[in-house]
């Protein structure tokens, strides 16, 4: 039977002085004040753990922790023991929960982004950060990561789906799976609730961008010639048709990228940002590479006309209101609508790429590798890519771009098929 101990008083605690060796002042039920040689006084609690082993924990220093406060902690510890819980383990759990409560989703996400950015290009890193800030942080950023469950993570995904941005929704799902995985590895959470988001974004039916058939080329060229809008816009439409580059590649083009002497446009993978213009760092999608666009005589003539208009600016296509900003992303499609095309069902700017690619393949003149390279498509087969990624096929691509511009000119006098035009020129296959 445990020996009864007279409870301590505040006066006894205050009067406790250091001796030549440490000693204990007992308050009862396992609580005592340890007086050390250096004069510090520490509250200790000795107890028996639920598994029968001896346990010892500290409540802090006196007088910061008063006698009443120490007794309160002892009573709370005894209550835990009655419930079969170890006070030391509970203290660790409480401390971890408090730390986790301070670890918000935004803090963990930014740490994940910082680590991953070492592997990403600056452009891709910027794109990911924009999506985090636009879609995830407003909804989840302030929340403690430990309290988030699958239903919480589903909210921004559903919001993106309602906006019709299914690609963004799918990317958000991927980001959250990675962020929560990092949190689990750091022991901030016990399980990854983002894993249950699988299937939340169903694959969407691919909708191909509208494009014209070869039979409709003469009418398109006639409508472009008849266009009476802004001359820079008309040249932009013609250049996009002749060079079939992506919209961002053309829209953010800088004059220093154009080499008139070599008849070559070098599109970098990343460009210098334009203040206040989203995604202005975008270059070619071929990350870590420069996309080369040989310039046909027709394109060179168009560029010289354009240079007389915008050559004093940095951008080939400065905006109408601010020359330091590029033309609107809707400029080319708006011009096509003015020409009478429905850009949702008949023809859009991106459709020029489809038209050019189809004609080049149908001609039978060019190797698939050269066409794909000029389209700036990445080789999907990683093994094959390792062998051909250095091959530029540049001389064949010069022939390709000249042939395409000549083919467009040939259709001004009436429709001619790519195959017939290739035979008419006496071209031979390069496949």
Automatic annotation (TrEMBL):
GO terms for biological process: DNA integration; DNA recombination. Belongs to the 'phage' integrase family. It comes from Pseudomonas flexibilis. CDD domains: INT_P4_C. PROSITE patterns: TYR_RECOMBINASE. This is Integrase. SUPFAM superfamilies: DNA breaking-rejoining enzymes. InterPro entries: DNA_brk_join_enz, Integrase-like_cat_sf, Integrase_catalytic, Integrase_DNA-bd_sf, Integrase_DNA_bind_dom, Integrase_recombinase_N, Phage_int_M, Phage_Integrase. Pfam families: Arm-DNA-bind_3 (PF13356), Phage_int_M (PF22022), Phage_integrase (PF00589). Residues 207-401 form the Tyr recombinase domain. It comes from the Bacteria. The keyword DNA-binding applies. Keywords: DNA integration, DNA recombination, DNA-binding. GO terms for molecular function: DNA binding. PANTHER family: PROPHAGE INTEGRASE (PTHR30629), PROTEIN INTB-RELATED (PTHR30629:SF9).
